[in-house]
């Protein structure tokens, strides 16, 4: 019994490693494959049977998409990037501001229709975005905000807000109400009590809500592909379509643009990951 | 330091009154304990004084000023919460100095007063820790430190010891009492623990169902409970009770048929034929051969259920008049369950309550 106990432990340890490895592979390999493909010539990408070991790595696709000749596969990367950045950042900031106000109100106050409103928020998440694209298109066309940053920011704020409020509500709920009261007794105005005591305690959670909102806007494709058409507002995910033409798909260029799109999202996630982890494993705010 | 006055204070949640127009005057530097069963409105009353709860009717005065419409920050009160409510993202020093920082005091001033509070409460080595790195007792002390740095007019405590284990609770109780003797600030202290109330209070305020039932010094309340509720609530072990009727010549006939002889002044006070509840504290009963009490004595017999030895005395539980009674036995001997004992009742310190109104007679 004693001996088998030891071997069983080792066996279980290996199982865990293999399990983790398989799971991570499933998550990472497609991404890695994209990165790898962006550095490989199209012949190698499309080779059949697949060439597993890269023979020739170069920056040709990147050079091509940044070149000035559309015939070479150039795309207005910089415009797309700028649009994506402006739209995602602005809509995230607005969603966070409104989300904080809303989340705080839901967490701290009781008011008429609160539950109904909350349910409404959640139900709004059940409607697939694509189903909204036609009505939205018509409304936006009437308002003349098709193909504008403003239009995209508006739709992304609306898209993100329910989830942002829901998340932030949860984080404020974890901050004991007594802390606000203690602060008020210590001389704070309600405004000071919020910014000096409650906000610092919820800010990890708010940061993680921000990441979710940013990534949703940054990666959103379905609505953007309907509501944008030119460099005025086209975002990176929509830009990926530039590589498809009637008869061919420029896989290499597409992968290169995809990498350009993934890198900022990864960077941002790394920068705030400390907060993200703290936010997601919240629960330690006890006086 | 300040007086606190409540005048017909009402708290209403929607259509429901939870505090029914209470009146109370608290003097300079007095230590007043609000005590009562769960849900009787103690916290609500305290929070109305703090400004954390709106006052639905009547007036709350601190000193000469009506504070009904002042926000908490303008009332100059400090509060210690049941779960301490320390700011988790600030060190102990920052927690202590927070109110002074908000009041825009100079750095030197803040440091001086934080150090002073830390010295009073023995927080010296903990100043750089976060609340999460402190034990329950230490947090409690920091919460009290945070309350005293501001030199408030009134301290408010809402069950500050109920999250501590029994031993620490006793110890902190002593510290709170010492603290009050040192700073002499008016204290309003909420608890549902009658022992805390007895040991700490200058005056006890007993509440029930949103009313004040009795106000008095601990001794006064212990010896002269206004009604059956107070009598049962204060004192440990709880008062022994039996039903009976006052007959002629000062005889009290109990429901089980026993007849006790009332002390002359009580016999004169209570009219013949009154249906009463008899209340006898454990201290006012003596097992035959184990101590003598008073000069007016009635004797009863009962069968023992159980004894609880406490060392120099035992608690003896026995069946009497349909309920379980208890007495203290000094110089205890072994008593087997089921053994019949003879007990002497000190008729001078028994209590009689009107059976219907429950008022003390
Ligand atoms: N927000 C509220 N809405 C409605 N009723 C409330 C609210 N807060 C408190 N109450 C009611 O007011 C009454 C008094 O509550 P309070 O908290 O003052 O009791 P307490 O004496 O402090 O009791 P405990 O010893 O349990 O703390 C209770 O019956 C409670 O149910
Ligand atoms: Mg309470």
TrEMBL record, chain B:
- Please provide the Gene Ontology terms (biological process) for this protein: carbohydrate transport
Can you give the residue ranges of the ABC transporter domain? 4-234
Gene Ontology MF terms in the entry: ABC-type transporter activity; ATP binding; ATP hydrolysis activity
The highest taxon in the source lineage is: Bacteria
Q: Which SUPFAM superfamilies match?
A: MOP-like, P-loop containing nucleoside triphosphate hydrolases
Identify the GO cellular component terms for this protein.
Answer: ATP-binding cassette (ABC) transporter complex, substrate-binding subunit-containing
Q: Which UniProt keywords apply?
A: ATP-binding, Nucleotide-binding, Transport
Question: What's the protein called, per UniProt?
Answer: Sugar ABC transporter ATPase
- Organism equals Thalassospira mesophila
- Mind giving the lineage of the organism this protein is from? Bacteria, Pseudomonadati, Pseudomonadota, Alphaproteobacteria, Rhodospirillales
């Amino acid at each position: 019994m004693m001996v088998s106990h030891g071997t069983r432990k080792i066996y279980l340890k290996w199982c865990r490693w293999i399990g983790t490895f398989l799971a991570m592979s499933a998550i990472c390999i497609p991404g890695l494959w994209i990165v790898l493909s962006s550095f490989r010539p199209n012949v190698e990408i499309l080779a059949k049977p697949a060439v597993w070991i890269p023979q020739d790595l170069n920056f040709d696709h990147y050079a091509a998409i940044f070149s000035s000749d559309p015939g070479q596969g150039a795309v207005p990367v910089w415009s797309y990037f700028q649009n994506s950045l402006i739209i995602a950042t602005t809509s995230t900031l607005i969603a966070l501001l409104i989300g904080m106000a809303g989340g705080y109100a839901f967490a701290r106050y009781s008011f008429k229709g609160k539950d109904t409103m909350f349910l409404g928020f959640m139900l709004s998440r059940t409607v697939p975005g694509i189903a909204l694209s036609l009505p939205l298109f018509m409304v936006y066309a009437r308002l003349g905000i098709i193909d504008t940053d403003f239009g995209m920011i508006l739709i992304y704020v609306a898209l993100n807000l329910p989830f942002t409020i829901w998340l932030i509500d949860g984080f404020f709920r974890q901050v004991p109400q007594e802390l606000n009261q203690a602060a008020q007794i210590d001389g704070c105005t309600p405004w000071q009590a919020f910014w000096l005591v409650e906000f610092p305690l919820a800010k990890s959670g708010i940061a993680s809500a921000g990441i979710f909102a940013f990534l949703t806007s940054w990666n959103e494709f379905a609505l953007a592909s309907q509501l944008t058409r030119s460099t005025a507002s086209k975002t990176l995910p929509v830009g990926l379509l530039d590589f498809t033409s009637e008869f061919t798909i420029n896989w290499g260029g597409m992968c290169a643009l995809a990498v350009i799109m993934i890198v900022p999202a990864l960077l941002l996630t790394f920068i705030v990951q400390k907060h993200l982890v703290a936010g997601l494993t919240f629960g330690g705010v006890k006086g | 330091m300040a007086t606190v006055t409540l005048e017909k204070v009402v708290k209403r949640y929607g259509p429901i009154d939870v505090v029914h127009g209470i009146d109370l005057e608290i003097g300079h530097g007095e230590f007043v304990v609000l005590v009562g069963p769960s849900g009787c409105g103690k916290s609500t009353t305290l929070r109305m004084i703090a400004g954390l709860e709106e006052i639905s009717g009547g007036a709350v005065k601190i000193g000469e000023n009506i504070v009904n419409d002042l926000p908490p920050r303008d009332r100059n009160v400090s509060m210690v919460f049941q779960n301490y409510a320390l700011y988790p993202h600030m060190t102990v020093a920052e927690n202590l100095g927070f109110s002074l920082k908000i009041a825009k005091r100079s750095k030197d001033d803040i440091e001086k007063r934080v150090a002073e509070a830390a010295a009073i409460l023995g927080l010296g080595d903990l100043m750089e820790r976060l609340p999460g790195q402190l034990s329950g007792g230490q947090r409690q002390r920091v919460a009290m430190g945070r309350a005293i740095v501001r030199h408030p007019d009134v301290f408010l405590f809402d069950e500050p010891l109920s999250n501590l284990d029994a031993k620490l609770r006793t110890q902190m109780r002593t510290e709170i009492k010492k603290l009050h003797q040192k700073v002499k600030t008016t204290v309003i202290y909420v608890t549902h623990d009658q022992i805390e109330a007895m040991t700490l209070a200058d005056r006890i305020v007993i509440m029930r169902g949103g009313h004040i039932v009795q106000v008095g010094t601990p001794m006064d309340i212990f010896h002269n409970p206004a009604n059956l509720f107070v009598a049962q609530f204060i004192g440990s072990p709880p008062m022994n009770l039996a039903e009976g009727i006052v007959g002629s010549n000062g005889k009290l006939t109990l429901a089980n048929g026993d007849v006790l002889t009332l002390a002359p002044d009580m016999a004169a006070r209570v009219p013949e034929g009154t249906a009463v509840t008899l209340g006898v504290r454990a201290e006012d009963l003596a097992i035959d051969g184990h101590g003598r009490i008073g000069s007016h004595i009635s004797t009863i017999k009962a069968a023992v259920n159980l004894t609880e030895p406490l060392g120099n005395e035992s608690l003896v539980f026995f069946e009497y008049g349909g309920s379980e009674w208890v007495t203290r036995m000094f110089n205890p001997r072994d008593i087997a369950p089921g053994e019949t004992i003879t007990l002497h009742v000190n008729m001078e310190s028994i209590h009689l309550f009107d059976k219907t109104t429950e008022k003390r007679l």
